[in-house]
Amino acid sequence: MRLLRSQIALLLPALLLATACQGDEPEKPEEEPSPSPVAAADLEKVEDLPEDPEELADLVQERMEKALSVKVAMSVVPEEEEGEASIEDVEVSMVLTDPPAARMTVVDNSEERPSTAHIIVTDKTMYTTLEEEALLPDKDWMRLTQEEIDSAEEEIGPFAEIFRVMLTETNKSLEQASGRAGLDVVRYGELEGDPESADSEDGGPLTVYAGTTPTRDLADAGHADFKAAADAGLEEVSWEFSVTDRGLPEEFSVEMATPDGEKARSTVHYSEWGSDIEISAPAEDNVGTIMESLDA
Q: pLDDT means per 10 residues in the chain (296 residues)?
């Protein structure tokens, strides 16, 4: 008994200390708030834009990340004939988070009957609907993720590749709209002549750069479209890049090669930097799955 009382006497202070420490546990640090868009007018002006392509690309990327949100219009026009209709037109409202969130409208003019797709991308999940025909009989949207395609591949057979192409093409459009591909074109390129001055859409000063970039360098950087261009025999691409006095891009255009090997001009136009853009997934009860679309 004496030994037991001695052990209790020794343990009691330790137990009390442990209890006291548990009562004074430090609070968990609060999560950092998500960044908010910054309007272009609220960004500091850049007095001297760099003339080195790599420095210019780095500066513009930093400014784009600060502005955070933007509206983008993209088109691809054949270069053979002036005034030729666009092969594809894409309009995007996006928030440049990681991963990005976006609402897109894609008009494919390459077929006799143009098709229009509306797409939402959020949390790495794609939701799509077509104007011309319903993908599902009782729901407006179809959900598409790489994981769902892989898990359903055995059941959906050759349709798996179609869904993968849809996902890949959407990711390519997002990369183009977010500026990552265009900034790499500038980053790995060389300027041709001195930058020229112009007026931006809001009447402010605009600096226009022109240059060329080896397609193989862009392919090595992981850009699939430029690998295709290099494989089609296009050794380099020519480009123009216009930047506002806030260090934000207004327009980027680059010579590309279509899958048929023909040259085309891809143009990305940016507007409404830092505007309020809300992007959310469609209502859950209005979203179907890949398997449901096949059943339909």
A: 33 32 50 80 94 97 96 89 76 94 92 88 94 88 92 87 90 90 96 95 94 94 85 89 97 81 87 96 93 75
Give, to the nearest 10 degrees, the angle between helix 53-67 and helix 180-187. Answer: 160
Rounded distance, CA 179 to CA 177, Å? Answer: 5
The 10s digit of each residue's pLDDT in 55-94 is: 999 999 999 999 999 999 999 898 765 556 788 899 999 9
Provide the residue type at 259 as one letter.
Answer: P
CB count in 10 Å sphere of residue 274:
20
Q: How far apart are CA 136 and CA 222, in angstroms?
A: 35
Output the CA–CA distances (angstroms, integers) from residue 34 to 30, 98, 174, in the order listed.
12, 11, 21
Nearest to 125 by CA among 112, 141, 143: 143
Q: How far is CA 139 from CA 7, 32, 130, 291, in A?
A: 70, 37, 12, 13
User: CA nearest 191: which of 31, 74, 26, 52?
Assistant: 52
Nearest 5°: CA angle at 176, between 171 and 181?
110
- Cβ atoms of 267 and 72 within 8 Å: the answer is no
Give the closest residue to 281 by CA, choosing from 83, 103, 35.
Answer: 103
